[in-house]
Amino acid sequence: MKVQLRVLVGCLFFLGLLLSFHMPANAKTKFITIGTGGVTGVYYPTGGAICRLMNKIKKQTGIRCTVESTGGSVYNVNMIHKGELDFGVAQSDVVYQAITGTGRFAGKPIKDIRVVMTIHPELMTLVVRKDSGINSFVDLKGKRINIGNPGSGQEATSKVIFEYCKDVVSLKDFNPEYLKAAECPNALRDRKIDGYFYMVGHPTANIKEAADSLPIKLISLDIPCIEKLVADKPYYAWGEIPAGMYKGVDYSVKTFGVKATIVTSKDMDINTVYWMTKVILDNFDKFKKMHPAYRHLTKKDLLKGFDHRWIHPGAAKAFKEEGLL
Hints:
The structure is a single chain. The protein is of the alpha/beta class. The protein has 2 domains: 27-121 and 260-321, 3-Layer(aba) Sandwich (D-Maltodextrin-Binding Protein, domain 2); 122-258, Periplasmic binding protein-like II (D-Maltodextrin-Binding Protein, domain 2), CATH 3.40.190. It has helices at residues 2-22, 43-56, 58-61, 73-81, 92-100, 153-164, 184-189, 205-213, 224-232, 270-282, 284-288, 313-321; strands at 30-35, 63-68, 87-91, 113-129, 144-146, 175-177, 195-200, 216-219, 237-241, 253-265. Strands 1, 2, 3, 4, 5, 6, 7, 8, 9 and 10 form a 10-stranded mixed beta sheet that branches. Strand 5, helix 6 and strand 6 form a beta-alpha-beta unit. Helix 10 (270-282) packs parallel to helix 12 (313-321). The relative contact order is 0.16.
């Protein structure tokens, strides 16, 4: 009996060794968080879409993904640098400025930021009340206009616009507000503001909410000072918001934009970034259906809008396996 017991214990010990050798190194769950933006924008559902795909394969990868609503692009980049966020969504112009130490990051570059991929195009959108008297950019004078909460991509880009267009309209010519994007539809309805800037993918629940609660207009931004801005900055491009996307807006609007970019730190382990990239590439058609802003996205689009020298090695590995790099 003792012999049998010793044999049984020996077998269990040997089995335990075998299991320890064959269990994946990531068997212990690793938790990662993606910083996004306001819950009514496109960043938040983008983070949610990525996390849903990641969590479906968590038994294989040992990675559990959560999404966090944050102040936006600049906040996300800073928190990744400080080690308080693992991943974040940021405008491509903010990413460029952070890495190169220009614009809002002048003299204070954040060189440890790395790009995972870019997602949907984002267009700078000027939303105003229909009865505001604002029919063009110059009509912003004397109005109450939200330019974005501190630390957001909206605020950073809005300030660049008014620097380039200061001979037409400067920040001193109107009353700037600094609300979060999610607060703007109600503020517009309650006449606390006359309009707001929002760099976002379309369609977005935010502007739908505004259009459903009061008559709105979208203002085109194709004016000479912004044409110069787009010509000067390699991360900006012209785009169009199609007619009929929002209630009462039955005309197309020309404006400019950037790309939503998934970023992380250079210190994020290759395996985690690899799986995040691979799960999107492997489930690309499913991913495209997760939000209307991704409708026309192609796999090649995921590599546009940034200098490829900034790509994280884990993402590069997945793109090379796909034949895209």
